[in-house]
Write a structure and sequence with these properties.
This protein is of the alpha/beta class. β10, α10 and β11 form a beta-alpha-beta unit. α1 packs antiparallel against α4, α7 crosses α15 and α8 crosses α9. The longest helix is centred in the middle third of the chain and has 31 residues. It is elongated.
């Protein structure tokens, strides 16, 4: 819990104790009233109110009303309550306040793990329109394919000092709501969580140019879903471009205020039809990635904002993604050899990659929970498992011609590759320390790109992988 949240709870308990067990005194009542009101007000102004604290707010409002009546109304004869009644009311106040404490600990306002690199992190957001492609998912046949991207880039530490840190956007709460089917208000507090990112800072000139990595999020998710991994890469001298894909991302909001929300695919009667639909959907996303790379190429030649001109090393381009974004990663690599290396965080293989394999270094990381579904004797399959998963994975691993890695992570489930372990450790990181959970993904992703884009060894990142031979798939 945050400091002011603790103070609110203590103020509520003190006020309730004053009413139930203290002697009625106008000066004491006024003091407790002022203290409680001030605690609640400061909490709202400094920390911002959040839904987890609503039970405590409700008790506080009731107590404030009682105190106002006691201060305003002249003291008269009042019948003292029995000890048992006081005990019962005390238990109710403690229980209701305890609900707020429990919910605040269940869904904490966490501190992001510090990036381990030497660079600070800047960002800009941009709307991109691909005039060569129609938006096939829009009701308007004249619409062109539009994207929102964030570019995160290295900044000198002294240039970031004193600048206000960016916070997680509300889109993260929208994404969690869609993925887990819970009210998005439960995660409205994510906007109170500061990142290590500053907006519109000057790009570092410490290096002539920087390798570039694209990031594609999962379906129903957001380009901000894996900021810990993005921050880690940028702090070590990468430019990272996060892509939101309209209609499959949770919510894409454009500068003019328009928002495009996730549209679920229709129910398909057969797995084959669903598979074909996924090929089409991933194909659109892979085209998005290629278009973003085309745009970066233009910016590198002539950036209208002057920020990236000549700063992007287009001979060192990587891509990674989670789930549907992992599938996007694999297919984009199969279609476009400008991508020199890629990491899929438990994505499928929908498209040409399932038949041709890859000609670039590739790492695939799977959660231990999903890996159990590959056992033919397993009666319960993970919801992300599908009939063609195992043969497609084997095909990619055996047909790929460059270094290929396959890892499974025990105690991980499908969403463990995002920030979900930090958002609720007690629910989503029961068997693993939440910071260690985060560190696994960000360390392996960075180590892989250090190896294949920078040609650097990354012992400090825990580069411990087992090279797959064809017989091991």
């Amino acid at each position: 819990m945050r400091g002011l949240e603790v103070i609110v709870i203590l103020a509520v308990l003190a006020a309730a104790g004053g009413i139930l067990f203290g002697k009625r005194d106008r000066r004491l009542d006024a003091t407790l009233l002022l203290s409680l009101a001030l605690a609640v007000l400061l909490h709202g102004v400094v920390d911002h109110y959040r839904i987890q604290m609503v039970p405590a707010y409700a008790v506080a409002v009731v107590l404030i009303i009682i105190f106002i009546r006691r201060v305003v109304k002249p003291q008269g004869h009042s019948r003292s309550s029995s000890l048992w009644k006081k005990i019962l009311l005390s238990v109710i106040v403690l229980a209701v306040s305890g609900v707020s404490v429990y919910l605040s600990l269940l869904l904490p306002v966490f501190d992001m793990p510090e990036p381990t690199g030497s660079y600070a992190i800047g960002t800009i957001s941009r709307q991109l329109t691909d005039e060569s492609r129609d938006e096939t998912l829009s009701a308007d046949p004249a619409d062109k394919r539009e994207l929102m991207v964030n570019v995160w880039y290295p900044v000198d530490q002294d240039k970031a000092e004193g600048k206000k840190r960016e916070h997680y956007p509300s889109e993260l709460g929208d994404a969690i709501s869609l993925v887990f089917g819970v009210p998005k208000q439960l995660f409205s507090h994510v906007t109170a969580i500061p990142t290590h990112v500053v907006a519109e800072a000057e790009m570092s000139a410490a290096e002539t140019n920087y390798p570039v990595v694209l990031f594609s999020p999962g379906v129903r998710s957001t380009r901000f879903q894996s900021l810990t991994a993005i921050e880690e890469l940028v702090s070590h001298g990468y430019v990272v471009v996060g892509i939101d894909h309209p209609y499959t991302s949770a919510k894409v909001t454009f500068p003019d205020g328009r928002s495009i929300f996730y549209e679920p695919a229709p129910e398909f009667p057969t797995s084959a039809e669903l598979y074909e639909s996924n090929i089409k959907g991933v194909g659109i996303r892979a085209a998005d990635a290629r278009f973003v790379l085309d745009t970066l190429t233009e910016w590198n030649a002539k950036d209208p904002n002057g920020l990236f001109q000549g700063k992007l090393d287009l001979n060192r381009i990587g891509i990674f993604g989670h789930s549907y974004g992992g599938a996007t990663t694999a297919e984009a690599m199969a279609q476009d050899k400008r991508f020199k290396a890629g990491v899929s965080l438990e994505g499928g293989f929908w498209g040409s990659v399932a038949h041709t394999g890859l000609q670039q270094p590739f790492m695939y990381i799977m959660s231990g929970g999903t890996a159990k579904s590959f056992d033919p004797s397993a009666t319960k399959k993970d919801k992300v498992f599908y009939e063609e998963f195992a043969p497609d994975l084997k095909s990619v691993m055996t047909k790929s011609t460059k270094d290929t890695y396959y890892l499974t992570v025990d105690h991980f489930f499908h969403q463990s590759f995002t920030e979900i372990a930090l958002l609720s450790p007690s629910i989503f990181a029961k068997d693993i320390d939440p910071v260690h959970n985060i560190d696994i993904t960000r360390s392996y992703v960075r180590a892989f790109f250090d190896q294949y884009l920078k040609r650097q060894s990354s012992a400090a990142s825990g580069w411990i992988v087992t090279r797959l031979s064809r017989s091991e798939v």
